[in-house]
Design a protein that fits this description.
The structure is a homodimer of 229-residue chains. By secondary structure, chain A is of the alpha/beta class. In chain A, helix 2 packs across helix 8. The longest helix of chain A is centred in the first third of the chain and has 29 residues. Chain A is globular, with a radius of gyration of 17 Å.
Chain lengths: 229, 229
């Protein structure tokens, strides 16, 4: 085992990344942009949730949004976002299994940030590495889809600790599985007692409005904090 | 972006890992053990598939099996395997998002390999990094579950290229999704024309026997190759 070498390299990278994340945060702050870092397993419904959320926000509020799509390969997701008339930037991470603050910095430098109220980063589909890298986002959000099972907090505790909100997607699949919602919630709250939990189905639209309202309140709270003397 | 440094480190590690994987392969070979490296997203059904497969093999053949369970944290999966009366070893990878050949070497040194015909490694739930590390296994197998969607070959091409067999699990969920089996198969075969594809449901048991028969034939082929003068 030569794990120790790997771990040291990792720590050095994490320190540099933290500093770059602070620079991202300053840029977002002076532009008045709220950034959400959305993380989940492959296929949990990240792109679907973004589309449903922005659709809901368009109806209820004048929020101007843009999306950063990160993927190892392919433009599939950014094409879906652009097709819905929303500004999308694709980041191809190559072999990288997560988004770090340097990738975000490089991306936001191509955007007209003062024209964007809400910037959503769709991170790479992965429950492990993305949780280890601060992207500079204001809010970390994760999706867990019902078919993945209720034991995920036991296996990926860091992800559940690093997020402020958990969206449980595909609740329309509940009857086909032995997913125990009470057990899941207990496991999540033991790791992260302040976690906001939203039960949604991107397919049926159930639960989307409650989640979207929370996003609006989060943007408002950030603006209020910025206006404080 | 300081990606270049990261990539160089990765290449060095991959070279060392390849050599350690060869040593794992020699050990398995002299013991007559066939090793399967099972990879998938979190919640795709790795542990369920292992349990169903070993149940099927127990009925039809005298194959002696053991399981290596790799997880970032928790003993959940190895407890399930042990509860079914199968030898299980848990590897806790700590922050690591994949299993490498050093971890396998350390683990198989604790096993009585000549008493094991089939060794199944349940890799960490992740479609990215595990595909980049040779574990020393004879066969790489991946699971894709229907709720994850039919676009995964576009997003995680390396995983589909590195595997010899693909198990499409949760086919009992097909009617609840817009998963297009034909489209999926076309995408997979474009990346990997020799991929063996098995459609199964671990919940209903559908398709498990065909897959189990393939495993038996794979073990037999390996034994025959070993006996050749």
């Amino acid at each position: 085992m030569n794990n120790i070498r790997l771990i040291e390299i990792g720590e050095e990278i994490h320190g540099d990344n933290k500093r770059e994340a602070s620079r991202v945060r300053s840029l977002l702050d002076s532009a008045g942009t709220t950034m959400i870092n959305l993380m989940a397993s492959p296929g949990a419904g990240k792109t679907s949730l973004i589309l449903k959320t922005l659709e809901a926000l368009k109806v209820d509020s004048p929020i101007r949004a843009a999306v950063i799509e990160a993927d190892m390969d392919s433009m599939v997701d950014s094409e879906k976002i652009a097709a819905a008339g929303i500004e999308a930037v694709q980041v191809r991470t190559g072999g990288f299994c997560h988004v770090d603050a340097w990738m975000v910095m490089k991306t936001i430098q191509t955007l007209d940030l003062p024209q964007i109220d809400l910037l959503i980063l769709e991170n790479v589909g992965n429950l492990i590495c993305p949780a280890q890298f601060d992207t500079g986002a204001d809010v970390n959000v994760m999706i867990l889809s019902v078919p993945e099972g209720d034991d995920k907090p036991l296996k990926y505790p860091l992800m559940f600790r690093e997020c402020e909100a958990l969206i449980i997607n595909k609740i329309d699949f509940l009857e086909l599985t032995d997913f125990d919602m009470k057990k899941l919630q207990d496991r999540v709250l033991r790791l992260n007692p302040d976690m906001k939990i939203f039960e949604v189905s991107c397919r049926t639209g159930e639960g989307i409005s409650r989640w979207s309202e929370w996003i609006v309140s989060r943007i408002a709270a950030r603006s209020a904090a910025r206006l404080k003397p």
